[in-house]
């Protein structure tokens, strides 16, 4: 057994439920027919009442001591910050604690290196917020490792001079969750997109159902581990008395798995951030009827700049980072605490208050960061037409956007190989509901979708949440849509409409995802969709279906 796993097992043997590889400690038996067995960690009291509680309390106290020793706050230095691992490599601190490099953005390529992966049986999409209940041993270990990398959960990579790592992890769909990973089935193994592309059996075991509960759903879902996931960021966390973690997170961007760093006890990978087609510089040029033949190398350079620009919008798009609404006397380092961390019980969790923070992320009220973000985006567009000899890309000076090469850009390879696809049509009573594919303009699709939303809200009395209502274009304020009375947020005039449309393309279908089969089980489909326009169109078709059904056209 390696040194890292040996030390992990040592902690696990005491922690029981909190760490991987941990056998559960036996519960002391107390019956009237046999003498009471004294627990391994017992109180000085001879009172048998509460003996088990004392045992558990002392055991968890020991676990916490080991946690504080094992998971120490470690902030990698600048040299280690952008390290890419092609194999399992760990560094040891002076105290002997085994640490892993923090997930970090490589701005030259747009890759996230050393990203821990949370592989579970549901999907997250950009713009969402969730509160996780982490109880499985390997993932408790994973999140403790992430939290140990920084004492602050509000750090950001958007500042070029900030070497404090953001608390990133990857959310990757795995049918049936951990149960599937233990099956050793090939289709549930963690893999890169190239391995998935070259798997001759990738379309075997085809599951026409998006969920096990509704087998009549027909979507292009394969019962396999996904290779496209969602980049997540930890906003806040609390530790529970029983060793579980409660973590508030938000979903930022799409990614595709490029390289596996390790698979056990949890996955770690180097991933490529995927932008929508509308954000790719060479695709913008194609839409302007310019003669562009972009090869893989040139696109890697441009993609890196575009991803860097995209991350600069995060402070505005995800700038509202609330704390978990847990009373101060339970919070770490609160005014009423002595500075030591306090742990909360299940009964102390204010679930109703937490639910008010979900399910969508909130925009910031401060838009000062948009100036730098827009400047970054403008520089990317300029790079498409002119590359100066002083650019750190290493490319020669050129005044043309035409490049040549045999390899396709990553996005084209994913599309050609069926890794990404457009949303499927809606079928009702053998009638195919499909709008014309001639409409690919995001402005036109946004307008049509809002008109469909107005019709849906008027027919159902549905009240749009503030996080969606704020996406209404200013020129469409004439719509008769019922919105939350507490609506306070208005998007900044400096915020690009394309990013507003991208957020709408994820949130609009989320509003109806649990209505009936044509809408259910579609999150991975939206995540795999390569463009904002295709998602807007797919959402529009589903609202058309519901609106027509309510009008009785398909009864």
Give a structural overview.
The relative contact order is 0.11. The chain is globular. Helices cover 32% and strands 13% of the residues. Helix 8 (296-311) packs antiparallel against helix 11, helix 13 runs parallel beside helix 15 and helix 13 runs parallel beside helix 17. The strands form 3 sheets. It has a 5-stranded mixed β-barrel with strand order 4-6-7-8-9. It has a two-stranded antiparallel ribbon with strand order 1-2. With 555 residues, it is of the alpha+beta class. Residues 1-7, 9-49, 73-98, 151-164, 207-220, 328-337 and 387-405 have low confidence and may be disordered. It has 17 helices and 11 strands.
What's this, in brief?
The protein contains 17 helices and 11 strands. The chain has helices at residues 3-15, 51-70, 78-81, 137-148, 178-181, 193-197, 281-287, 296-311, 314-317, 351-355, 369-385, 410-416, 442-460, 466-469, 497-510, 523-528, 532-550; strands at 91-92, 98-99, 104-106, 111-120, 129-134, 168-173, 228-239, 245-262, 268-274, 426-428, 431-433.
Main pleated-sheet profile: 5 strands, mixed, barrel
Number of strands: 11
**H and E order:** HHHEEEEEHEHHEEEHHHHHHEEHHHHH
Radius of gyration: 25 Å
Give the neighbour order of strands across the main sheet.
4-6-7-8-9
Mean pLDDT: 76
Unreliable stretches covering 5 or more consecutive residues: 1-7, 9-49, 73-98, 151-164, 207-220, 328-337, 387-405
């Amino acid at each position: 057994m390696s040194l890292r796993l040996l030390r992990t097992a040592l902690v696990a043997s005491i922690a029981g439920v909190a760490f991987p590889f941990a056998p559960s400690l036996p519960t002391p038996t107390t019956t009237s027919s046999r003498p009471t067995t004294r627990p391994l960690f017992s109180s000085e009291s001879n009172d048998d009442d509460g003996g088990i509680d004392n045992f558990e309390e002392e055991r968890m106290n020991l676990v916490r001591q080991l946690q504080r020793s094992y998971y120490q706050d470690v902030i990698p230095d600048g040299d280690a910050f952008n390290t890419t691992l092609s194999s399992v490599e760990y560094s040891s601190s002076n105290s002997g604690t085994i640490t892993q490099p923090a997930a970090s953005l490589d701005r030259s390529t747009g890759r996230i290196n050393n990203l821990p992966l949370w592989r579970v049986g549901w999907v997250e999409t950009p713009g969402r917020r969730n509160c996780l209940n982490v109880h499985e041993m390997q993932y408790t270990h994973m999140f403790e490792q992430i939290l140990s990398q920084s004492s602050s959960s509000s750090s950001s990579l958007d500042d070029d001079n900030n070497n404090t790592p953001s608390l990133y992890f990857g959310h990757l769909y795995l049918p049936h969750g951990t149960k599937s990973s233990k099956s050793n089935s090939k289709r549930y193994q963690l893999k890169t997109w190239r391995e998935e592309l070259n798997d001759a059996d990738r379309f075997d075991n085809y599951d026409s159902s998006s969920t096990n509960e509704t087998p009549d759903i027909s979507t292009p879902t394969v019962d396999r581990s996904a290779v496209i996931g969602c980049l997540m960021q930890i906003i806040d966390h609390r530790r529970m008395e029983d060793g579980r973690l409660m973590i508030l997170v938000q979903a930022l961007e799409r990614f595709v798995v490029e390289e596996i760093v390790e698979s056990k006890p949890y996955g770690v990978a180097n991933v490529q951030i995927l932008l929508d087609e509308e954000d790719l510089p060479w695709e913008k040029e194609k839409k302007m009827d310019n003669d562009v033949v972009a090869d893989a190398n040139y696109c890697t350079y441009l993609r890196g700049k575009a991803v860097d620009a995209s991350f600069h919008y995060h402070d505005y798009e995800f700038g509202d980072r609330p704390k978990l609404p847990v009373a101060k006397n339970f919070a770490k380092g609160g005014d009423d605490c002595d500075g030591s961390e306090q742990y909360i019980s299940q009964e102390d969790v204010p679930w109703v208050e937490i639910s008010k923070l979900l399910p969508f992320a909130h925009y910031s009220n401060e838009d000062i960061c948009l100036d730098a973000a827009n400047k970054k985006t403008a520089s990317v567009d300029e790079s498409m037409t002119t590359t100066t000899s002083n650019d750190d890309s290493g490319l020669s000076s050129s005044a043309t956007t035409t490049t040549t090469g045999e390899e396709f850009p990553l996005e084209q390879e994913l599309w050609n190989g069926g890794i990404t696809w457009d949303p499927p049509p809606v079928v009702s009573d053998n009638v195919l509901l499909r709008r014309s594919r001639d409409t690919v303009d995001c402005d036109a699709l946004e307008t049509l979708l809002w008109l469909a939303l107005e019709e849906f809200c008027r027919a159902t009395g549905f009240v749009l949440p503030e996080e969606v209502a704020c996406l209404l274009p200013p020129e469409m304020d004439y719509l008769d849509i019922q919105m939350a009375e507490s609506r306070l947020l208005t998007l900044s005039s400096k915020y690009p409409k394309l990013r507003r449309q991208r957020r709408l393309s994820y949130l609009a279908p989320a509003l109806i995802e649990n209505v009936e089969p044509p809408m259910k089980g579609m999150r991975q489909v939206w995540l795999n969709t390569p463009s904002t326009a295709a998602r807007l169109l797919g959402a529009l078709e589903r609202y058309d279906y519901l609106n027509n059904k309510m009008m009785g056209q398909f009864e």
